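name: query_chain
kind: protein
chains: 1
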Amino acid sequence: MPVPFGISAPAFELLDDTNTPRKLSDYRGKNVILYFYPKDNTSGCTTEACNFRDDYSAYERAGVVILGVSPDSVSSHTKFKTKYQLQFPLLADEGHKVCDLYGVWGPKKFMGKSYEGVLRTTFLIDPDGIIKKVYEGVRPAEHSQELLSELGLA
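structure:
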């Protein structure tokens, strides 16, 4: 079960795609889109990331920070970010500790097989570090537009 809205977003520090440590607290004073996705270079994850990329100028003008998190390695994130020319940090949560902290690691099924993985979820965090909204079961192709509307930017 994801962390609920209305509370302080759990603090964390992860390495980004340039091997730079990033803390959630670094972004106090800004709205933050913290999105958790299963895996670099997969269909849905690529669609979601590229839509954020394509809409990035609207987020940037409004001072909104986008942070993508998955259990992939720094190296995987670097390649993914370069391949698709993504402008925002991708954070490596290899031990899925932050996924666990946010309640987005859990049981999944694919082609009849059950396994544990990232449940595609996004947290909209306000400038005071409070979770304003939680998006579960995200539809990758529509998600960026959904967030732009929520933020009054569409």
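note: The CA atoms of residues 22 and 59 lie 19 Å apart.
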